[in-house]
Design goal:
By secondary structure, this protein is an alpha+beta fold. It has 6 helices and 5 strands. The strands form 2 sheets. The protein has a 3-stranded mixed beta sheet. A two-stranded antiparallel sheet has the order 2-3. Strand 2 and strand 3 form a beta hairpin. The model has no long low-confidence stretch (mean pLDDT about 85).
């Protein structure tokens, strides 16, 4: 589960770092909040689209469109950030509801689900052949068993 949060102070730090490095292109950062000291910790920068990068599209920023604008239509793109919170899930909603424990995250989870501000890239329109869908549903619902076994 990833929640795209609106944290302008983090975005400003990221932008300053990338500008200081004269970096051009895509990147994503692995950032965690440390409640022990109330600070965000930067773990890594990936100078590519990450495997789970669809959360960016789910937050309203279409990376494919940015690439087309920049490299096909020669329209340079500016640094952009999400404009609203979104939830990215690859497990069933029931698994997320059961295994998210921190109250603030539970509240955000339920709020974003209720507002239908979430995306699950496993089940996208246009990618729903019968064999694939059967495999995806099987794998999807196996998450209940897997989480019970490993986090039970």
């Amino acid at each position: 589960m990833i929640i795209t949060e609106l944290k302008s102070e983090l975005y400003d730090r990221v932008k300053a770092l990338l500008e200081d490095l004269n970096y051009v292109g895509f990147s994503n950062f692995d950032i965690k909040y440390d409640r022990r000291d109330g600070k965000y910790k930067f773990f890594e920068i990936n100078t590519r689209q990450g495997r789970s990068n669809f959360y960016v599209t789910g937050s309203g920023i279409n990376i494919a469109r940015l690439l087309v604008e920049e490299y096909i239509f020669d329209r340079p793109q500016e640094f952009i950030t999400p404009k609203e919170e979104r939830l990215w899930l690859t497990v069933p909603k029931g698994v997320a509801k059961k295994y998210i424990f921190e109250e603030a995250n539970v509240n955000k989870l339920f709020s974003l689900l209720q507002k239908k501000k979430y995306v699950n890239p496993i089940f996208l329109k246009g990618d729903n052949g019968l064999n694939r869908m059967l495999r995806m549903w099987k794998n999807h619902f196996m998450q209940y068993k897997n989480f019970k076994r490993y986090y039970g």
